[in-house]
Amino acid sequence: MAKIENPKNYTGRDLETIFFRPMLSGSDAVDLGIKILYNTPVPTTLQFWKRAGDILQKYTASGWNGGESATKFQKQIQLSKVKAEVGYSADDYFNMVYETIAGRSDVNLDDLSGTELEAAETSLFREAVAESIRATMWLGDTERNGQLATFDGFVKRLLADSGPGENDVPCFYLPENFAGNSETDAAEKVFKKLWEDAPEVLKAFKPQGNLVYLVTSDIYARYEEELDNVVLESAYLAKQNGREALSYRGIPVIDIQVTPYLKTCGDMPQTFALLTDRRNLAIAVNTADFPGTEIRMWYNPDQMENRQRAIFMAGCDYLLPEMVSMAVGGISATLSSDGIDASGGAVSITVKGYRAVNSLTAQGLANDDSPVGEAVPLTGEQGVFGGTLTGSGIVKIRCTVTYLNGESGEFIIQ
């Protein structure tokens, strides 16, 4: 049986130069559309300088008429100590590493050095760690049991701060089934409304070139389809040859590619889009200021298994609510109890995307959609809400959802 047994351990400067620095810089990092902070001084702080207004004054021969100091906004990013662990059977691990090396034309397979093997192993683990960080920074929730629970992500933080107030994140809600929307320009309307709802301070930063639309894959795919349907020769050629990137009115549109994770994160809205400044969102990773940070790879002969472990600090946050405009969708309600009793009784309703929901009420309906009995507030946790309906002749239920920003929506359950 072929196996790789040499242990590897990265600490100190090697931890930065060999493992973390390559994955947190370069074109892949730029494509994320956010700011990346690596080993910045602790406490890790987001900073944003507000541009001063008119500083010109009439000339005088002497004296100082300087205005107020420039305004600086700061927000600390809470870092959490996290651990990444992966185990492979010795055979599978050897085959994966060998395949990584065999795919390169500049490697002599008859004379593999320890450096080549180490680079292949490191690359394999680095990709897995980078992907976990990327997914968690969007969908992380420390209150969740299961995956992506090591630190709170952007979506949870932005939803918690959404509302109609001046210091809240502006947010509006999309139809339940955005992908099935029959409107010919549904995605374009989302981008347009995000721009219209954006605070003036965010719009003012457009000339600096740092604004970006960060969207889920369904919105991105719908927008690309809408561009394909434009009756122009250039659109036809783009449909054949593909597009390197999308933009709306000069602002890049980036697919954040979290759809596979959303399917297993029922607490999160399944569709969302942000208009923001790249400098307003940040992910921070630290391996320098905390004891015990390391990367270790070794072979366990008892289990005939190759194991990899990484210990480091990570966290993310946004700085200013007035630098974000948000759209949320993919929220749905389904009956989780056994059918609808015509005479009422206890009902249980499961809400997907409940992190965006503030409260829920249920109203029994007759065949002609007339209300039966009184609307009942539902209570619950982890997305499962329950209550008791009263009346007779109930054939369906109208659920009224009040979102965190005060808006409301309705779902009919039959």
From TrEMBL:
It comes from Alistipes hominis. This is Uncharacterized protein.
